[in-house]
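wait is this the right file?? whatever heres the structure
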């Protein structure tokens, strides 16, 4: 998200100093097991809330994950993960580029059509009514409605008979997407946001908690019309919310640092929220990234903590007392009778020890969370081995049989770092459809690294392992007790190793052709001042907005890319260059270093994904160029690291800052594919494997969108809604593909 547009969100901390019957069965099991019926009274609200509180998890240890999970592997041969499909990549783009504009609707290229598929409040099964502007839907009902501020997203093709993942299936699949945060006042219309004497009504907090997290919805394609619809009768449709029960696995499992009143043995926690970007695994599960989570917690004035705890809290955004941004710790629990559901949002040391309060609650947030969309009963898993920070995104290396996998990740806050996790286990394609058990195999044991970029175009991976390189309990800055302590305090470990402070690392993409890793660095208004320029973060300049001098720094962001030495994910070194610099087309040449023109200029890259053909999709979350254009999505056909050369960037340094830029690409190879409605951020992109439908998410549009671009939503009201849209070609061809293109640039 962009900090200018979302003032309510405490983000960008700068601390570097149904099937209804089926579902009912699941719920009933939980209800009887946990005694929620007795505690919550009766009626649909209590029922739905119970679902929210305990999620769709099963009480059994999910590591074996048998339960009712459909579609375990049969013969993976013939159904290999379609990781790359380079023969389908176009040589250049021929769709007509979309012009910059500030209209209150989406613009797509000529010959393309857009349908609004799934907007905040939409029911995910037939038991719930449509959300309209004129009636309140209960907070509890949001356990069965779309959450808000759609973000990272992946399509998982589903086998027509086996109800399992099938990488090449386009007719039906599970669309899994994040709901990053909420548009609070819109969400509670027509009632409006209520806080009386600092106490929030429980129904509103339920609505807010449930509007966070992740959606799993089954989508189906009509083969004749190519129309894509949600199957409201699918047993897979479900919501994972900020209250769903989750497993803690990896080094932090059972650590004293994650023990709470809820989970005295430190193996469970509740909820995923602030889910920004995403990833997916070669075995067919979804990864959601927990980004701006610290602002949700209240810390009381006078909260006394040990020096170590204080150091950790300060490095993760709660070094001093502060109220949680939505006051989720305040409801009186008159509906549910469960005060503990709200106490957990206060991290103060109130009890005699950590087992009596939630002082450790923040240590259970900030992870990559694995969700098996094909498992309706398994608990989502927090994969703590991948470190704890403001996770923006997580992308897996191209899987190679018999070799380890790497997961690349960005920590999105000013001056934060880029990380990789290398698995101990080597890839075995028989694990496709292995669900959480495969996740346990690959994601719980491995080595975490953080990146250091040298000015000469080389880089190093600095290992973050307990007992190595001073990361032990003799460390004077922070005494690391064990690997749980290193993973939970990954930022402190990375500080100690001397990682490079980056211009807000956002999404990561892995080129299916050559394994190169791309990272969006969205912007940094402090670059050139508190963060001196370096070759990897080279620009500091004054940006002009509406003719007036704006802020100075790296105002438009850039995309860095790197290649592992010898193309092996275990490499300790890499080479890098800067693939693209965001800039206005008319900016000076030492700012517009990529030579962008009116067909492809952009600002503040954020979402990003290589489709399996090797087309790179770039999305923007901008507040700097919005006087001239709404946020957008571009398509690119990149070369490779080292295809350009040295350039000198505008910097606060007297002679500029030398850096290494990728080859300039013409607008036939970087081109604007769409613009979103005014006020929005475009974030989240995935496709059906036949490349004929592309799904895109839009956050916080303003005006009346989507009522002005959709017959269905025009009947429901005019309050703007975040949504998933699906774009297809009128001639049924491949998106941005070569064949059947008639429109000329
Ligand atoms: Fe949620 Fe860093 O964007
Ligand atoms: Ca952003
Ligand atoms: Ca983002």
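ok assuming it is, sequence goes like this
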């Amino acid at each position: 998200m962009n900090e200018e547009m979302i003032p309510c969100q405490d983000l960008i901390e700068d601390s570097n100093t149904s099937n209804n019957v089926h579902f009912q069965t699941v719920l009933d099991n939980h209800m009887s097991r946990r005694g929620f019926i007795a505690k919550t009274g009766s009626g649909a609200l209590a029922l739905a809330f119970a679902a929210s509180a305990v999620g769709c998890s099963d009480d059994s240890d999910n590591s074996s994950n048998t339960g009712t999970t459909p579609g375990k592997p049969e013969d993976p041969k013939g159904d290999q993960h379609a990781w790359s499909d380079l023969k389908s990549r176009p040589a250049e783009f021929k769709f007509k580029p979309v012009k910059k504009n500030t209209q209150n609707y989406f613009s797509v290229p000529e010959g393309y059509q857009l349908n609004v598929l799934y907007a905040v409040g939409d029911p995910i099964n037939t038991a719930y009514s449509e959300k309209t502007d004129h009636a309140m839907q209960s907070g509890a009902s949001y356990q069965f409605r779309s959450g808000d501020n759609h973000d990272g997203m992946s399509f998982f093709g589903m086998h027509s008979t086996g109800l399992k993942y099938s990488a090449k299936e386009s007719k039906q699949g599970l669309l899994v997407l994040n709901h990053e945060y909420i548009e609070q006042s819109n969400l509670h219309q027509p009632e409006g946001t209520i806080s009386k004497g600092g106490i929030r009504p429980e129904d509103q907090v339920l609505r807010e908690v449930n509007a966070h997290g992740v959606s799993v919805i089954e989508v189906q394609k009509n083969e004749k019309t190519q129309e894509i619809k949600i199957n409201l009768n699918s047993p897979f449709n479900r919501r994972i919310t900020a209250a769903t029960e989750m497993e803690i696995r990896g080094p932090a499992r059972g650590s004293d640092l994650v023990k709470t009143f809820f989970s005295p043995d430190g193996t469970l926690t509740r909820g995923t929220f602030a889910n920004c970007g995403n990833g997916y695994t070669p075995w067919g599960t979804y990864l959601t990234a927990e980004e701006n989570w610290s602002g949700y917690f209240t810390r009381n004035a006078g909260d006394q903590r040990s020096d170590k705890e204080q150091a950790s809290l300060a490095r993760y955004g709660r070094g001093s007392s502060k109220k949680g941004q939505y006051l989720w710790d305040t409801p009186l629990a008159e509906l549910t009778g469960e005060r503990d559901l709200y106490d957990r949002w206060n991290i103060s040391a109130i009890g005699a020890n950590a087992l009596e309060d939630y002082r450790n609650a923040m240590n259970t947030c900030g992870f990559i969370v694995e969700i098996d969309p094909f498992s309706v009963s398994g608990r989502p898993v927090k994969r703590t081995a991948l470190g704890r920070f403001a996770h923006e995104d997580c992308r897996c290396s191209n899987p190679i049989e018999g070799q380890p996998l790497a997961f690349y990740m960005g920590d999105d806050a000013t001056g934060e770092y880029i990380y990789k996790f290398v698995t101990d286990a080597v890839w075995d394609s028989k694990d496709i459809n292995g669900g959480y058990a495969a996740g346990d195999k690959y994601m719980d044991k491995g080595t975490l690294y953080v990146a250091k970029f040298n000015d000469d175009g080389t880089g190093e991976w600095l290992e973050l392992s307990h007992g190595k390189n001073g990361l032990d309990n003799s460390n004077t800055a922070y005494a690391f007790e064990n690997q749980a302590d290193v993973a939970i305090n990954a930022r402190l470990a990375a500080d100690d190793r001397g990682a490079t402070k980056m211009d807000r690392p956002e999404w990561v993409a892995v080129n299916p052709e050559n394994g190169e890793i791309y990272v969006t660095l969205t912007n940094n208004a402090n670059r050139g001042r508190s963060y001196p320029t370096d070759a990897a973060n080279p620009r500091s300049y004054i940006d002009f907005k509406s003719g007036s001098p704006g802020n100075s720094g790296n105002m438009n962001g850039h995309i860095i890319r790197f290649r592992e030495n010898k193309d092996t994910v275990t490499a300790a070194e890499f080479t890098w260059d800067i693939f693209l610099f965001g800039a206005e087309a008319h900016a000076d040449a030492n700012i517009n270093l990529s030579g962008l023109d009116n067909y492809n200029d952009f600002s503040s890259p954020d979402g990003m994904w290589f489709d399996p053909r090797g087309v790179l999709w770039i999305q923007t979350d901008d507040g700097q160029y919005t006087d001239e254009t709404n946020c957008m999505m571009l398509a690119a056909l990149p070369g490779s690291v080292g295809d350009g050369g040295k350039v000198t960037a505008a910097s606060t340094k007297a002679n500029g800052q030398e850096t290494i830029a990728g080859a300039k690409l013409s607008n036939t190879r970087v081109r604007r594919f769409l613009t979103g409605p005014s006020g929005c951020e475009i974030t989240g992109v995935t496709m059906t494997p036949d490349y004929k439908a592309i799904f895109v998410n839009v956050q916080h549009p303003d005006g009346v969108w989507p009522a002005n671009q959709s017959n269905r939503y025009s009947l429901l009201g005019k309050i703007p809604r975040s949504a998933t849209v699906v774009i297809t070609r009128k001639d049924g061809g491949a998106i941005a593909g070569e064949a059947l293109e008639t429109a000329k640039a």
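The radius of gyration is 24 Å. so i think its the right one actually
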